[in-house]
Amino acid sequence: MLAVFLGVALVSAGALGWLGWRLLQQDLALESQRRRDALEQAADRAAATMQLALAELQGSLASPAAARTSLPAGVSRVSTGPGLAFVQPAGSIPYVPFPRAERAEPLEAFAEGERAEFARSDLNAAAREYANAAAAADPIARAGGLARLARVQRKRRDADAALRAYAQLASLDADIGGIPAALVAYAGRGSLFEETGRTDELRQEGAALGRDLRQGRWRLTQSEYDFYSDQASAWAGAKRVEDRHALARAEALDWLWQNRAAVGAGVRRAMALSAGPVLILGQASPDRMDVIVAGPDYIAALCARSLSADLGCALSDPEGRALAGDLRGDRDVAVRAASPNGLPWTLHVSPPAAATAAPSPRRRLLILSFIVVGLVLAAGWYFILRAMSRELRVSRLQSEFVAAVSHEFRSPLTSMSHIAEMLATDRLSTEELRKKSYDVLVRDTDRLQRLVEDLLDFGRFDAGVAALRLETLDVAAVVRATVDDFREHVANQGYGVELTGADEAMMVRVDGEAIARAIWNLLDNAVKYSRECRTVWVEIGHERGRVSIQVRDRGLGIPVHEQAEIFDRFVRGAESTARRIRGTGIGLAMVRQIVRAHGGDVRVASEPGKGSTFTAMLPALPS
Ligand code: ADP
Fold first, then answer.
1. Which of 208, 291, 463, 585 could serve as 467's disulfide partner, Cβ 3.0–4.6 Å?
2. Residue of the nearest CA to atom 17 in ligand 1?
3. Contact in structure between 500 and 514 (CB atoms under 8 Å)
């Protein structure tokens, strides 16, 4: 049976485990499918948002008026061409490769002055000549005049006059040899301050030049821009401060200007620069450009705007080179490829990093329910096994009981039938022998009678308090009478009982006969299990509002592990069975039944080899 049970339990546990595993697998697959779908949808939405944003940018290219109002941050619109130069927002690109209309200086206007300056070394005359040239209507002639005037003043060591000339030069919108007049003025003032050791002014000059450069005040090539920027930072005594994103936009424009012939008319291109990705949209032809340049900051913002914060955004150019973000070779990434009319880059959307770690609420519930079902099953198996082992124990005890009872019956019956036969056949010759036989008959009948009564009472007291006939009695008197009877019963075996504390009357509501039976059983055991010491002690007293009846012997004693179970029905101690001491295992069970039916309890204190003390506690009547 145990094997069948174990088989069933194992099969059901296995089935449950397998089912749970399958369900979990399914749930995992479902969840990853759901995550995949969500990611694909997010990628679709992001691609659509990006396309819309790019379409808007393209729209602002078509209408300069729209560009003025609605260009997003990080985006510049640039138009260049003969007679046309336009950067929106103004100053958003530090250098733009505009074709500069270079016009030669009217050198004859300065011929007289230069003769005076170089041939005759007449600096005053030269200054006069140059001042005249500087008063011309043509801005280029004025610029040339002022620059030369400043040079002569510096030779004359008139720094103030030179600075005045430079100040006028700075305000002119003209080029000198292809260099903007204002830049020439800056260069002149800087070198003047440097020569004369005016470091504070030199520093201020450097800072102002840097500011003007960063704001894209002049049309410069990248190398001119770098040269003047380095100059400015050297004067200012500080490192170059740059708006890296603006520089990236300028760099992209420069690239387009260099490659405008190869790129073709329509430009829609994303490129990776050291500052990040830059996007160029628009048209370029050999002599003009009309483009929108969106820098790394705009593209990062576009990524962030198109995707929720927990998703990762990465971009690559159509050739697969990384533009922005981390291009992990991850299988879980949703990809939207670049296309001629769609996205100028390939979009890679990666799932949140934590998504794989945290189990979904559904899965958690599933795991929890399997744990609960597993626990319930385990508890069920435990209780079934326990019940089975109890059943086995009870049936073993019962068969032992039947064997013990049969033995208890058989031995007196054998002796009785033997004596009866001897009497019947007159084989007992003397009167003394016959008398002894009658005594044995009386003792054996008494033993049988007690055994039968024990068995009947055992069944009766199973019914608990209902089986009792309760009356208010002096329990001390009951104990006294029982002890007297018992003394008589065991006197011929040489046993004595010492009774203490029974003088004072103790009124308790009891079934006198039942209590007498319980005390008798305890006394009987005390004698049975105490072969050497032939005295048994009975003490009656009060303990915390209850009446206690104590039966003590100095006999075999009971090992601790048996002390609790000897009160169970049919249980006999190992020692008593081994020593073949007569008994059926129902004596103490009956004692406990009777005492508990009275609302009391019984306990044992014992040590093997030293003896045992059984104490029955009965609730006392309130006095
Ligand atoms: P029985 O005495 O018929 O075996 P009981 O129910 O009266 O059955 O007692 C159960 C067991 O408790 C005994 O088999 C014995 O091992 C132990 N026992 C009971 N009383 C004593 C005692 N006074 N001294 C030692 N062992 C005892």
1. 463
2. 573
3. no
Average pLDDT of the residues in 362-387: 88
- Of these ranges, 73-87, 92-106, 123-137, 346-360, the one predicted with the greatest mean pLDDT is 123-137
- Give the contacts of 587 (CB within 8 A, at least 6 positions apart): 454, 521, 524, 525
- The DSSP code sequence of 322-373 is EEES-----TT-EEE---SSS-SSEEEEE--GGGGTSPPHHHHHHHHHHHHH
CB 287 within 8 A of CB 313: no
Q: Residue 67, Cα to own-chain centre: how many angstroms?
A: 50
Domain locations in the chain as residue ranges? 1-94+243-353, 107-238, 467-619
pLDDT of residue 330: 65
CA distance 390 to 353: 56
Collapsed DSSP state (helix, strand, coil) of residue 203: helix
The CATH number of 107-238 is 1.25.40
Q: Is 593 in the pocket of ligand 1 (CB under 6 A)?
A: no
Torsion (CA) 29, 31, 33, 34 in degrees, nearest 10: 160
- Is the pTM higher than 0.70? The answer reads no
| Cα–Cα dist 522/499, whole Å | 14
CA 457 / ligand 1 centre spacing (Å)? 18
pLDDT, one tens digit per residue, over 304-318 is 888 888 888 888 888
Same fold, 107-238 and 467-619: no
Contact, 289 vs 79, CB < 8 A? Answer: yes
Find out whether the peptide bond into 89 is cis, omega within 30 degrees of 0.
yes
- Indicate which residue's Cα is closest to atom 15 of ligand 1: 573
Distance CA 249, CA 35 (A): 37
Peptide bond into 344 cis (omega under 30): no
Could you tell me if the CB of 216 is within 6 A of ligand 1? no
Which of 572, 593, 613 has most ligand 1 atoms within 8 Å of CB, for mutation?
Answer: 572
- Partners of 290 in the beta sheet? 79, 283
Q: Look up residue 431 and give its two tokens.
A: 């009167």
- Torsion 540-542-548-554 (CA) sign: negative
Looking at residue 204, its amino acid is: Q
**Ligand 1 atom closest to 567 (CA):** 6
Going from the Cα of 545 to the center of ligand 1, the distance in angstroms, rounded, reads 28
233 close to ligand 1 (CB < 6 Angstrom): no
611 lines ligand 1 (CB under 6 A): no
289-300, pLDDT tens digit by residue?
A: 888 999 999 998
CB of 79 shorter than 6 A to ligand 1: no
- Considering the segment(s) 467-619 as one domain, its CATH architecture is 2-Layer Sandwich (3.30)
Q: How close is the Cα of 412 to the center of ligand 1, in Å?
A: 21
pLDDT at position 83 is 65
